[in-house]
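Entry type: protein chain
Record version: 2
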Amino acid sequence: MAIHVFYDNSNVWGGARNLGVTKDQAVPWAAIRVHFKHIFSFIEQGRKAHTRILAGSVPPSSEELWEFARENRYETDLLRKVESDDGSISEQGVDEVLHLKMANVLLDFPKTDTLVVVTGDGNISEFGTGFIPQIERALRIGWKVEVWSWSNTLSRKYLTIRRRHSTHLRLISLDAAYEGLTFVQPGSYHRMIDGIREEFDVSPRYVGKLPTLEKTSYFP
C-alpha cells in the first residue's frame, strides 16, 4: 500500500513558530526553521509515496528550501501573497491547490492507499473548499487517512471526525519531535521595545535526532 502526502507549509511552519515560544524561549519567530529532510522522513516512515505535494506562499523567498523539497521529489506549488482591500497581505489559493490535488488522488488511486495530510487547518476557504471535506470524502469511500499536526494548529473538528472514523483516521502530533524537526537559524535579529529598535544576535540550535514514531504523542 502506498501513501499520498499533502504538506501545508504555512500551517506547519506557523505551528513550529508558535511552539518555539516555549521550546526555544527568547528566540525570535523568524529564527525558527523547519528541517525539511527530517520532517519528510518522519512523515513518510520509509513507506512508498506515490504522491508528494507541498504548497506554500511567497514572499518571503526561501528558494533553497523549495529546491530541497523538489530534490526530495515533492511537487512544490508556490503562490504569491496578495494585498487585501484593507491593505493586509495574505495567502490566496494555496490551500485550494492542495484540496484539488487531494480530490484527484482519490479519483486516480485505489482506496487501499493512505492519504497523509500534514496540516491542522480545519477552515473552509473563500472558494468553499477545505481539508476536512476532502478527508471526509476519503473516509467515506474507504481510504485510511493520517493527519500530522502541531497541537497548537490542530482544529478540534478533526477530533470530532475521528470519533466517527476511529479505525481509519489517525491524528498524529508533531510536538514530541519538535527538537528533531526544527532548528534555530543563527544571525542578527531585531525587536522593538518601547518604539526603539534593538539589535541582538541569536546562537544556533542544531536539529536533533528524530524519535521513533512510537514515542510521539497521538492526539487523545
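Comment: The chain has one domain: 3-215.
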